[in-house]
User: Which sequence fits this backbone?
């Protein structure tokens, strides 16, 4: 009886450690946030948060043909995007671009390891943020799916 | 033990200063003076520009070098730059007309271009480029500008105000410093 109880405790402990480990990994990898708020009366509001690790793993599940197509389109820019991603990861937090006019405000910044893009216009407010470290891993996946010339 | 601690502290401080010295930022600020006009601020780490530029393969930009278009036949740009470099501080071009004043000069290691428009009293253009950056820019082939070398030279240079353009409708400023904001 004591042995069975002890085994149950070990399994439970293993599960807790596993969940905590996965949570830590998801937290360490960061989160992708996409928010859209329609400013019209009765307009919708969408907020999506996805752990970055899910996106990296999700790319593995995308059909190879679709990935090849996306990769072929992005091919000329992949090296630049990969290098930019690596360099941005080393950069201190900063606002890289800010455009302001009476009807619209656009900002591209790095905050706490994430690239943050905000657009606030008369019609809607859009917020996108994703961990900078996600960029090189996505580029690597796309590169691997590119058929050799 | 104390010596080791002091040694580590010196090493850390040196590394910190070295890292700080590498953080150079190119800033571009455009302000439309009209009421409700647009404003644009761009802040780019030079390190990022230096690494990304060679990877961009576009129509005229390749391996961090941009092809110059237009007629430069008959002008040996390298010989011209060599003459500018070896010459002492001097006024190379001065144009004074009733409508416009233009000045191209070399002063204290900088190439200066100044334009003043008399028609629009507030219109002025000032370009100040370190000679080392001009050298680097033209260090490639005859008909190309080596952007990566120029960025590298800018990184090694101190704070500098590169371009200011002012007229009644807008103000443009391009400069390099070690701050990551354009304020």
Assistant:
């Amino acid at each position: 009886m004591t042995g069975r109880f002890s085994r149950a405790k070990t399994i439970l402990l293993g599960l807790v450690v596993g969940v905590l480990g996965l949570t830590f990994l998801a937290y360490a990898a960061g989160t992708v946030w996409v928010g859209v708020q329609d400013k019209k009366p009765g307009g919708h509001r969408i907020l999506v948060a996805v752990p970055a690790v899910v996106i990296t793993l999700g790319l593995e599940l995308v059909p190879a043909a679709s990935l090849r197509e996306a990769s072929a389109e992005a091919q000329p820019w992949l090296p630049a995007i990969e290098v930019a991603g690596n360099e941005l990861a080393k950069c201190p937090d900063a606002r890289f671009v800010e455009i302001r006019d009476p009807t619209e405000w656009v900002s591209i910044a790095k905050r706490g390891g994430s690239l943050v893009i905000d657009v606030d216009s008369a019609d809607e407010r859009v917020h996108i943020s994703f961990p900078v470290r996600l960029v090189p891993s996505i580029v690597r996946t796309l590169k691997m799916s590119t058929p050799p010339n | 033990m104390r010596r080791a601690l002091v040694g580590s502290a010196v090493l850390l401080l040196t590394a910190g200063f070295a890292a700080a010295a590498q953080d150079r930022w190119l800033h571009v600020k455009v302000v439309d003076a009209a009421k409700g006009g647009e404003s644009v601020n761009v802040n780019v780490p030079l390190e990022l520009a230096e690494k990304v530029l060679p990877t961009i393969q576009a129509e005229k930009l390749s391996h961090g070098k941009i092809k110059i278009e237009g007629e430069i036949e008959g002008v040996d740009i390298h010989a011209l730059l060599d003459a500018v470099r070896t010459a002492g501080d001097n006024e190379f071009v001065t144009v004074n007309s009733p409508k416009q004043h233009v000045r191209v000069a070399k002063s204290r290691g900088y190439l200066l271009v100044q334009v003043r428009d008399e028609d629009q009293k507030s219109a002025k253009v000032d370009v100040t480029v370190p000679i080392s950056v001009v050298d680097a820019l033209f260090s490639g082939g005859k008909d190309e500008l080596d952007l990566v070398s120029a960025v590298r030279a800018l990184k090694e240079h101190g704070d500098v105000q590169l371009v200011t353009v002012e007229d009644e409708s807008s103000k443009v400023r391009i400069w390099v410093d070690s701050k990551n904001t354009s304020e």
